[in-house]
Amino acid sequence: MTKGQVGRVGQVGQAGRVGQVGWRWIVAAVLLVGAARFAYALTASAQGWSGITYMELVYGAGDRASRASSPHEGAGRRWGPLFFLLMGAAKRVAPSTESLRVGLRLFLTFLYGATVVLLIRLVPEAPASRRALRRAALVFLCCQSTAAIYAIANGMGEIVTAFCVVAHTYCFVRRRYALAAFLICFSIYFKLFPIVFLFPYFAFSLLSREHRSYSLYLVASGLVLAAIAVPVLGWTYGFFYPPAMVRDVVSDPRVIPMRSKEVFGLLFFVDRMRSSFAVSAAPASPAATKMLTRVFSVLLIVSTGGAAFMLAKLEHVWNVSVERRRAALIAFQAAIGFAIVSFSLDVSLAHLAPIMVTLYAPLLLVVDSGAAVALFVAGTLLVGNLIPLSIVLRLLPLAWLDRLAGNAPAALIPLEKYLWYQIPLAGVYLIGLSLAYARWTQRPTTND
Fold first, then answer.
1. Cα separation of 399 and 420, whole Å?
2. Which of 1, 96, 338, 414 has the CA that lies 20 to 30 A from 178?
3. Angle, CA 348 vertex, CA 258 and CA 293 arms, to 5°
């Protein structure tokens, strides 16, 4: 090699290093912008850091329900006994109401940060630059998450359940079944919603000889936490809190927020289609609501149970390496999330936080197709994870949707229109379509 050739090689290497440094600065700037927006959104919220939290309201309502003459009176939307135990302890320790509220929001912010760290550790193995780019994109999108900002600003429990659900997935991938089982049981006795994740994992563990120990840890963790719950709320809504709440939801149509302007999902899409999305339409009869509730409950069980069956049936294919195992379990978790949004009986904006693995699955799996990435970006935009929701609301044709449904412009505020017309549902389905398209166009490999 001549001196000139050596010089040219050195120049190319130096240019490559300069390019890498430039990309690092760009990534750092993007992350800084994302973090700044996250901090500003929390500080500029109407509640502020010391405004009343939703947890306080639920705690007060739970106190009234515990003194009700009937066990069903006021118990329809009751949170779990562990929430009341921990919230009561927090109220006793806090020196003032203001410090309690600030402390709750700081704790939720810290917990959300821990959740994002666990998500980052689920990013697939890849060349260093590509993996770093995926991780940076994941952190940026998590900082833009409208659901997380909304839940932290209002002091809601979905950040706690989101951490438990993501940590449960992380521990299950790493084969830490005892800790995974405890986390999911804890989250259920804190707030019922994560029970939709427990069932498919329990079903899968029963079908898989290698994972059967997880089901034993579930039973043990559930019994320990149930025993702790007895002194808090007694036997019905303490020890037997999960089955008691499931009974209430299935048997009492008043528990389902069917006409609420704060929920979305396939169940509510079907109900609103009945009246062409008219806000002033009369609610469905209790008998019709009960029928829909039972149908969608069965669909939720069948869909998540079917995913568990398929995961167990194909275990000999995916449980052969660390990376294939990680990808299969993330796909399983994502499928559960799509089933929840489709068939759950209560999905609000804050409930997007516990299905974070679903919303960011294209970053956690190998999705490199241009069309799949475009679908993911479009879906992420609609669920409020790309740019501030206030900008999204200006971009959406909400006035046209009002005219189409026959609703007065002032009948709903912009956020209610966003939820009433099922915009987040469309966004979640676009993310699902992104995964499906990437899988469909992926070149098959051996044992795929």
1. 13
2. 338
3. 35
Record the tokens describing residue 182, joined without a space: 């405890």
User: Measured between alpha carbons, how far is 95 from 332 in angstroms, rounded to an integer?
Assistant: 44
In whole angstroms, what is the distance from residue 24 CA to residue 133 CA?
Answer: 9
First to last CA, the chain: 45
27, 214, 305 from 201: Cα distances, Å:
36, 9, 9
Burial 124-135 (b: 16+ CB within 10 A, else e): eeeeeeeeebbb
- Quick check: 363 and 123 in contact, CB under 8 A? yes
Q: Which residue has the tokens 């609501």?
A: 289
CB 122, CB 170: distance < 8 Å: yes
Backbone torsions φ then ψ of 45, nearest 5 degrees: -65, 155
Q: CA–CA separation, 82 vs 351, rounded Å?
A: 19
**Per-residue confidence in pLDDT tens, the chain, 448 aa:** 555 554 554 544 554 454 455 567 767 777 787 788 888 888 888 788 999 999 999 998 875 554 343 444 444 557 999 999 999 999 999 999 999 999 999 999 999 999 999 999 999 987 777 888 899 999 999 999 999 999 999 999 999 999 999 999 999 999 999 999 999 999 999 999 999 999 999 999 999 999 999 999 999 999 999 999 999 999 999 999 999 998 887 777 677 888 899 999 999 999 999 889 999 888 778 888 888 888 999 999 999 999 999 999 999 999 999 999 999 999 999 999 999 999 998 899 999 999 999 999 999 998 878 899 999 999 999 999 999 999 999 999 999 999 999 999 999 999 999 999 999 999 999 999 999 998 888 755 544 4
The residue written with tokens 């939703």 in the block is 54
Q: What is the Cα–Cα distance from 326 to 334, expressed in whole angstroms? A: 12
Q: How far is CA 154 from the centre of its chain?
A: 17
Report residue 285 as tokens.
């009869």
Predicted TM-score of the model (pTM): 0.90
Angle, in degrees to the nearest 10, between helices 3-43 and 146-153 = 40
Q: Which two tokens stand for residue 328?
A: 């299969």
| The residue type at 288 | A
